[in-house]
Amino acid sequence: MNLVAIVGTNARKSYNRSLLWFMKKHFKNLANIEVVEIEGLPMFSEDTETPVRVVEMARQIAAADGVIISTPEYDHSITASLKSALEWLSYGELHPFTNMPVMIVGTSLGKMGTTNAQEHLRQIMDAPGLDAFVLPGNQFLLGPASVNVDVERTELTDDRTVGFLDQVFSNFMMFVDSLRPMRAMAFDRTADKTTNGEHEGTVEGVKLGYKDIDKVLKGSALDPDAVPSVIIKPADNAQVLERGDGWWIEKTELTDNVTVTEVATTTTDVEEDDDATTGASMF
């Protein structure tokens, strides 16, 4: 797997640069990670011709399987240099992030890591002209950087932090792999077949999302070999008072004299203790 890792700052000393170089060597047996700098790029302006370096960066990104962006947090947001670089990469003919899997990481001197900056960056990457697919959840928010990052040795100093990064990176690799068929369909329109004016959406012999086909994406809801989802339905002895699309209201006898009405749906929520969340809050 080939990944491009963008340093989200033009500062000469950067904990985020060290974080990416740590990821490059730590995950070297899983992926080839090319660290790319934005230092030296001019501020974006429609009145300025697109720099050659921006075009080269766009080609690097377009040729990759995915992109990692490490962002610091300045004044509750990303750096001006990173925002400017992304504006260059979404301008004119350059749109290398379209349908590109993106993983966002970040570290800062504060205890909350880069919480606000990462949220802003997610919104930016979703903008028209960028149209990236950002790995949902899996926020790696590392702080304080001065304690957790050894800049000289490009190492992370806490084993639990490294373990959490391993988990997030593993999830990103699965995310990249899961998007391959859809990205192939988006970019290789010659693979589409048309029958009676309707697109079949064929990608390398795998058809996506249609019931009247003989071959579907492995593991999808239409895969006959896939384990069926749990189907929630009214109890056999329940008195159904009202029914809709994916929901119903049933009457349940709790005691001889008391009746209540329960509302059930086809999806359920599992509540978690605030202290038992993903672990991202630790960073």
Characteristics:
283 residues, alpha/beta, six-stranded parallel beta sheet, three-stranded antiparallel beta sheet, 15 strands, 27% helix, 21% strand, globular, disordered C terminus
Question: Could you write a compact summary of the structure shown?
Answer:
With 283 residues, this protein is of the alpha/beta class. It has 6 helices and 15 strands. The chain has helices at 15-26, 52-63, 80-88, 115-125, 145-148, 159-187, and strands at residues 2-7, 32-36, 66-70, 101-107, 133-134, 140-142, 149-150, 155-156, 194-195, 198-199, 202-203, 206-207, 239-244, 247-253, 259-265.
Task: Report on this structure.
This protein has helices spanning 15-26, 52-63, 80-88, 115-125, 145-148, 159-187, and strands at 2-7, 32-36, 66-70, 101-107, 133-134, 140-142, 149-150, 155-156, 194-195, 198-199, 202-203, 206-207, 239-244, 247-253, 259-265. Mean pLDDT is 77; it is low at 189-213 and 254-283. Strands 1, 2, 3, 4, 5 and 6 form a six-stranded parallel sheet that branches. The chain is α/β, with parallel strands linked by helices and 283 residues long.
